[in-house]
């Protein structure tokens, strides 16, 4: 992904500065807000990536949306704007959160389900992830009706797909391998 290396460098530098000022947790909350906002608003991502939109409009847009963030986070936004790197803001937010979680020995487990998780099920998943990784776990639930049922669990770079949709795809592939079934 373009800008990945720059985003990692910015995130490391921001985390280092935030730790010096004892603001790492506050900045993590700000970057989580930024990431969630950008996930929900593709238009914001388009504006920030567009070379046609002026820096002033980008700055005003960010200031209007993110009014209650830490002053240090505002400085980061200004630095990215000044360096013409605001297009990597989303990646910086993601990388910062990963580094912050790593620093605190936490894992974020993304669980994709067809319906929202219940509190009981979320607790069981958290316990299993903590058992497997040895780190504390934070569960994020993404609802996607396209998987039909079951779940997809992603922890770091590992993924376990127990969705009904993937099982149906596997079954279809298996039937295509049998010539007598495909001729029916």
Describe the structure.
The chain has helices spanning 4-20, 24-40, 42-49, 55-65, 71-82, 89-103, 119-133, 164-176, 179-182, and strands at 106-113, 136-143, 150-155, 158-163. By secondary structure, it is of the alpha+beta class. The chain has two domains: 4-102, Peroxidase, domain 1; 106-176, Glutaredoxin, CATH 3.40.30. It has a four-stranded mixed β-sheet, with helices on both faces. Strand 1, helix 7 (119-133) and strand 2 (136-143) form a beta-alpha-beta unit. Helix 2 (24-40) crosses helix 3 and helix 2 packs across helix 6 (89-103). The radius of gyration is 21 Å and the shape is globular.
CATH fold title of the largest domain: Peroxidase, domain 1
How many distinct folded domains?
2
Please identify the structural class as seen in this structure: alpha+beta
What is the chain-wise order of helices and strands? HHHHHHEHEEEHH
What keyword list fits this structure?
184 residues; alpha+beta; Peroxidase, domain 1; 9 helices; 61% helix; globular
Layout: helices, strands, pairs:
Elements lengths: L3 H17 L3 H17 L1 H8 L5 H11 L5 H12 L6 H15 L2 E8 L5 H15 L2 E8 L6 E6 L2 E6 H13 L2 H4 L2
Helix pairs in contact: 1-6, 2-3, 2-6, 4-5
Nutshell version of this structure?
With 184 residues, the protein is α+β, with helices and mostly antiparallel strands. It has helices at residues 4-20, 24-40, 42-49, 55-65, 71-82, 89-103, 119-133, 164-176, 179-182, and strands at 106-113, 136-143, 150-155, 158-163. The protein has 2 domains: 4-102, N-terminal domain of the delta subunit of the F1F0-ATP synthase (Peroxidase, domain 1, Orthogonal Bundle); 106-176, Glutaredoxin (3-Layer(aba) Sandwich), CATH 3.40.30.
């Amino acid at each position: 992904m373009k800008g990945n290396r720059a985003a990692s460098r910015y995130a490391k530098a921001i985390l280092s500065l935030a730790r010096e000022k004892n603001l790492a947790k506050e900045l993590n909350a700000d970057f989580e807000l930024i990431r969630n906002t950008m996930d929900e608003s593709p238009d914001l991502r388009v504006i920030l990536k567009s070379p046609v939109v002026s820096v002033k409009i980008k700055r005003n847009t960010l200031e209007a949306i993110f009014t209650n963030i830490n002053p240090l986070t505002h400085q980061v936004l200004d630095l990215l704007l000044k360096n013409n790197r605001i297009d990597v803001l989303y990646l910086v937010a993601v990388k910062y959160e990963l580094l912050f979680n790593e620093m605190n020995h936490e894992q974020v487990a993304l669980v994709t389900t067809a319906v929202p998780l219940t509190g009981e099920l979320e607790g069981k998943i958290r316990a299993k992830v903590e058992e497997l990784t040895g780190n504390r776990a934070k569960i994020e639930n993404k609802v996607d009706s396209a998987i039909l049922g079951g779940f997809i669990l992603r922890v770091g770079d590992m993924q376990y797909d127990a969705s009904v949709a993937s099982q149906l795809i596997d079954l279809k592939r298996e039937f295509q391998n049998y010539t007598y079934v495909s001729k029916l």
